[in-house]
Amino acid sequence: MQLQVDAIGKSYGTTAVLKGVSFSLSDGEQALLLGPSGSGKSTLLNIICGLQRPDQGSVAIDNQVIASPDSTAKSDEVRRTSLGIVFQTLRLVSALSLRANLELAQKLQTGRVDSGLIDESLDRLDISHRAGARPFQLSQGEAQRAAIARAVVVSPKLLIADEPTSALDRENTRRVAELLIEMAKTVGAGLLIATHDDRLGDFFPQNYALDQGELKSC
Amino acid sequence: MLTLAIAYLRDRPLTTILNVLLLAISVAMLVLLLQFGSQFEKRFEKDAEGVDLVVGAKGSPLQLILSSVFHIDQPTGNIPLSSLELLRGDPATGRVIPLALGDNFEGYRIVGTDETFLDLHQAEIAQGAMFEAPMQAIMGASVAAETGADLGQQFIGSHGLSADDGADTGHDHAPFETVGVLAPTGTVIDRLILTSVESVWDVHGIAHDHDHDHGSDADHADHDHHGEHGHADDGHDHAKEDAQQTARLQSVQSELQPELTALLVSYRNASGAIRIPAMINRQTEMQAAVPAVETARLLSLLGVSLEGARIFAWLLAAIGGLAIFVALFSMARSREGDLALLRVMGATRRQLFSTILLEGLVTAAAGAALGWLLAHSLLTVARNSFATMRDLGLSAWQPVSQEGLIILAVLIIGMVAAIIPALRVMRVDPAAILSRAG
Ligand SMILES: Nc1ncnc2c1ncn2[C@@H]1O[C@H](COP(=O)(O)OP(=O)(O)OP(=O)(O)O)[C@@H](O)[C@H]1O
Ligand SMILES: [Mg+2]
């Protein structure tokens, strides 16, 4: 897997939030996107995830464009099958059981349900015993792991997480970071995490810092 | 998407159950009204076919028609035997059928008549033969099927016209013998037991010249004995509705004479229609009633009340639709997050739209199915617990094509109710929602 982010620019009105951001992530690589609040981390991730469109530049996975100023149905399709996303606020569907949440994600993103992969992921994340529970019946930590499981069971090429640990204490921050790293390795996906929490820096070989709309390696 | 729609419905069981119930009640009402309307009308038409005029004792003309054509109500009274000869002798009449009512067997009316009654309903004997001798009887198809009566079997009539009229009022002394069973006709005759008029007289200890002398009639007036047969006539000291008949018999005639309950008349030519009713009503103590007029009046009375109920039921269905709309609309907000997420995971706008639409549709379908079952179960219960319903020939599981239309209409209501919330959901902007905290 090769993620190629190429000269992404984005403005809100007259304020330029991203001014030509470029970086790349090669197969199985893991990177942290650091930056103070308001620096545009979420904006960048949203563009990669297809939630927002860039004003300039493009994002490609394995040379297939997944985001550009004029995104197409084809880029939607590639993005859908390539990305696993862990949202900061988890976003589990509360009407469905944990297991049904994972199945729904698989159905939508890969077109088929793979129970073996679900079992394995639940097992690794230590929540198999909660598979039948509804999201609101889960503890905060369990729900966090459930959200990771949902991003992982679609066998993504790239696992993306925006502020996955902002609500967690030091101990749980460490655990979640370790789990994300481990699960990404298990499914052979790259990992990209955006956070303002530089405690996470120690876990990653490669850190980028977003500042004044520009990206610096550090 | 269906699983998701159902999961959403199960997620708020109270609202869902309420909405389903609302629709179910309205569907049940509509189906019941339809069933009553169509079955009554069909039944009325079929049973009254071939009867131009009914002649009976004075009283309510509707009651006369109900009792002697449809065999539902109590008779208005008795008429003299001589009326039969009078009308049969008239050149303007075609068929004149005598009817003598009074008893039942397990709720099925025993009708004293002759073979012209079979002609009227185009009934044919499926097994056995026509009654000939006194106390021989033939059974309508439904009677035979439901009582399990066989040829040659004896049965005893009870006084009154339905099973619940009185339990211990049997005519044990005068058992009938089943000599024939009729083929099903789909008319009221299926639910009747036919015998000769004379047999009905015999049961009630009325002397008649067919096989008895007239004898001293005063002896019979006190219901003590029936000389010829030599058995106690204990069938007559009972029952309220019988009391009026007895009283009438005693006061008006002070003796038991061979009488009839009604005559079913058809005309030979148009002049009869003008002359005969006028003659009966003016020159005799009897009345003449026209089935077509009475049933039309009954149906229009029924029609007005059915119409009111129908409007109410549709109103209820509309409220059900509104309830679905409110539920889905108010849900849309709290579900925006979910739906935005589904969009990001690759669900198309069409899929989101159909999820919401399905929710409305599933609710409506559940309501329609439940209502339909409810209506037909109620019909079954009604049939099993009220003899009148059976006598009306109300069948429980005979769907009418318009029921399909009702169900379709309710499904459309469910769908229409869901369209606006579904359109709203289609327009969610996943980015705006997902980047929002919480
Ligand atoms: N829809 C919008 N309209 C206008 N301005 C916006 C919009 N979304 C974000 N911004 C602005 O763009 C800048 C970058 O926002 P973004 O959410 O990307 O920051 P962030 O790095 O994720 O911050 P945090 O760490 O607090 O999550 C902020 O100044 C924000 O106010
Ligand atoms: Mg952010």
TrEMBL record, chain A:
Protein's organism: Parasphingorhabdus marina DSM 22363
Family annotation (PANTHER family): IMPORT ATP-BINDING PROTEIN, TRANSPORTER, PUTATIVE-RELATED
Cellular component terms per the entry's GO annotation: plasma membrane
Keywords carried by this UniProt record: ATP-binding, Nucleotide-binding
InterPro entries: AAA+_ATPase, ABC_transporter-like_ATP-bd, ABC_transporter-like_CS, ABC_transpr_LolD-like, P-loop_NTPase
A Gene Ontology molecular function term of the record: ATP binding
UniProt protein name: Putative ABC transport system ATP-binding protein
Domain annotation ABC transporter: ranges: 3-217
Automatic annotation (TrEMBL), chain B:
Keyword tRNA-binding: no
Protein name from the UniProt record: Putative ABC transport system permease protein
Pfam families: FtsX, MacB_PCD
Residues spanning the signal sequence: none
A GO term from the CC aspect: plasma membrane
Subcellular location, record wording: Cell membrane
Residue ranges of the region described as Disordered: 211-252
Stretches assigned to the ABC3 transporter permease C-terminal domain: 311-430
Keywords carried by this UniProt record: Cell membrane, Membrane, Transmembrane, Transmembrane helix
Topology in membrane: Multi-pass membrane protein
Compositional bias annotation for Basic and acidic residues: 211-243
InterPro entries: ABC-4/HrtB_transporter, ABC3_permease_C, MacB_PCD
Keyword Transmembrane helix recorded: yes
Domain MacB-like periplasmic core: 16-197
TM annotation in the entry: 17-36, 311-331, 352-375, 405-426
